[in-house]
Write a structure and sequence with these properties.
alpha+beta, 23% strand, 23% helix, 2 domains, 6-stranded mixed sheet, Alpha-Beta Plaits
Length: 286
């Protein structure tokens, strides 16, 4: 629980604050940028909510924080915020909130499908979220993009009996399905696993319709105004990650939904392909 006495001095005055336990995962300022901002090595409150919608959004960011670093003197929205996840990004894709410190605050997503709901990476095993997932039809499959973002996967297996799917190259054992190789793997007519080794040996993306779930392979960098990837936080092979980025040019999608970094949406697959080509060109020079 955040402590006012430990709040960072660069928070603007008002009910919301971020304290010194912040790990700068980015969740709050990606989800509620009207209230929170990047303070360098931590998040900060740059503007207090000025209407009820902004207040609820800030409270949802508080709930989503993986380490409880956000506090507020106004508790009015907290009960509602705790029940507000998963949060709809579209008719059938949701942000789960409740990020986990075990995954350094990585985002996870729910895909709601008549043929069975899919979790992309694991959120924190929070009871309000699990109840809401049950109300939405449960979880049939849990796709794990790579070894960093598995969080409470075992708790979701125990609760929902979901099949956990991951690439064998990342070395996890005890899962229901381990895939192999570098070729795309159809899970269903509307679900395609795309192995994208580089960030880790077994990193993979999931393509659902025009949504590409990328784990830590690719994300939007709002400061640079382009798609990006990290050579610094690369745990296997940067040249291989660049090759895997190029492989994505063969697919049509208009959304990039990462574990870390910003969400990106374009008006067409062609526009996304252009953005990706530009990003690859920059990253090859880095």
């Amino acid at each position: 629980m955040a402590r006012r006495a430990d709040a960072h001095p660069d928070n603007v005055p008002g009910p919301f604050f971020v304290d010194r336990t912040c790990i700068d995962c980015g969740t709050c300022y990606q989800f509620a940028p009207a209230t929170f901002a990047d303070g360098g090595d931590h998040a900060k409150v740059h503007a207090q909510p000025d209407d009820p919608a902004a207040g609820l959004r800030a409270s949802m960011a508080l709930v989503a924080c993986p380490v409880g670093s956000i506090g507020t003197d106004d508790k009015a929205d907290l009960a509602t915020a705790s029940r507000a996840f998963p949060h709809a990004l579209s008719d059938d894709v949701f942000f789960c909130g409740y990020t986990s410190d075990k995954s350094f605050g990585a985002w996870s997503y729910l895909i709601r499908r008549p043929a069975g709901n899919v979790l992309m990476d694991s959120p924190r095993a929070a009871e309000p979220l699990m109840k809401n997932l049950e109300a939405l039809g449960g979880v049939a499959s849990l796709v794990l993009s790579h070894q960093d973002d598995v969080a409470d996967h075992a708790a979701y297996r125990a609760r929902f009996g979901c099949e956990r799917i991951m690439h064998r190259a990342d070395g996890m054992t005890g899962l229901e399905r381990l895939v192999e190789g570098d070729e795309p793997i159809p899970l269903a007519e509307d679900l395609l696993l795309i192995p994208t080794p580089g960030h880790t040996a077994g990193s993979l993306c999931l393509l659902y319709r025009d949504y590409l779930f990328t784990g830590d392979h690719l994300w939007w960098n709002p400061d640079k105004g382009r798609l990006s990837a990290s050579r610094t936080y690369n745990w296997h092979s940067w040249p291989l990650q660049l090759q895997s980025l190029e492989k994505l040019l063969a697919y049509d999608f208009t959304w990039v939904l990462p574990g870390h970094g910003g969400i990106h949406r374009t008006g067409s697959p062609a526009a996304m392909r252009t953005d990706l080509e530009q990003a690859i060109a920059v990253l090859k020079r880095s």
